[in-house]
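We emphasize that the prediction below concerns an isolated chain of 447 residues; any contacts that depend on oligomerization or on bound cofactors are therefore not represented. The input was used exactly as deposited, without trimming of termini.
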Amino acid sequence: MSVRPPGSRWYNAVWRWHFYAGLFCVPFVLWLAITGSIYAWRPQIEAWLDRPYDSLIPSATRATPEAIAAAAMRAVPGSRLHKYELPQSARSAVRVLVGTSAGDRRVYVDPYRLTVLGVVSEDQRPMQIVSHLHGELLAGAWGSYIVEIAACWTLVMILTGLYLWWPRGRKGLAGVLYPRPSGGRRLFWRDLHAVTGIWVSLFALFVVTTGLPWAKAWGSYFKEIRTFTGTLDGPVDWTIGGRKQTDDPMLGEHAGHMGMAMAHQGARPGELNRTVVAATALHFAPPVLVSSPGKEPHRWTVASDAADRPLRAQAVVDGATGAVLGRKDFAERHWVDRAVGYGIATHEGQLFGIVNQVLITLGALMLMTLSISGAISWWRRRPSGRLGAPLPLSRPRFGGVLIAAIVALGIMMPLFGVSLLVVLAAERCFRRQTGARDSLGLRVVGM
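Result of the prediction step, given as a token string:
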């Protein structure tokens, strides 16, 4: 089927959907690009923030892990041991996470002098706040739903933008792959928007799709599909709506501590010491977290929380004997978990070092350029007192393939399907109101 030239019903209809999607998504794209690029540099930022705790002067005598944990719990009255992080060097303070009714507290303990160097709320650590700002807008589940809807409509914005960008009959690459050097400000902003869009489109599609497993609705939906198809392999290694999943069948009920407060069995003297020795011998990628027993006594979890997720591994240690009862490396997980793990590690800028971080930052800058240039282009051509949406021409017919594609998107992304129905209903309602119809540009113009 031949492509109709600009000005046709199809081109105009796609332009309208691109306009509305962009109008809604631009603030979120800017927000997610800024917070995401900051989070990509998390290792360096946290190392800088924690530098006072990693410059200790070692002494000849080092306290046992249990003595260190006891000092941490004394610093937070009424708390209980949750996680013990193996120090990464002889000059590092030991990080001990203790659980309270108000959430985890991170306690920094000098292992040579048993001095508590600092106590911070785990949720109030700067990069944790950035993470919640990025994924939940600091609004919990509802914030996650809003971010997910914005992500879904960003996909619509990208796909419709690619359709509009397609060079129909244009000669040369100016305005297609690079902005035209002359032509006035209006043409410059239009070209900057279109050209940036084509260069960043694949990046945007990638970050949106790899970010969906974190979302509250889509992540839970994905988990239910995997349960139904028998592809769920224990708890996933990422948060869903800001919460970690628990209980890995391979490692038993003790395997899924992963940041969750739970009822702990009392550990007997010597168990933490033996577990730390066993954890050190495993040589997992840092940071390595030793979690206290859950529902079953004596069974401790050792887990790598490496930012590069393919390096992660888990093991279970019998605290009574120090024996390793089970181990599961990243390569042993289900292929779906491995695929998502690679995607998330790249999304976070941690899969291939600083190059990954630089690429994520450059992609975020391009998304900001795309959003700002689009907003400026709209503002410059917007009629006074009106929204400036492209006027709808007589409606094109929707073929079976297009309808099937929209339905498929609605099934794959339920919040997109629901929000699309809401938008269509709202548009139908506004068309009946003369004032709203004119200001929003909903008056149909015949061809």
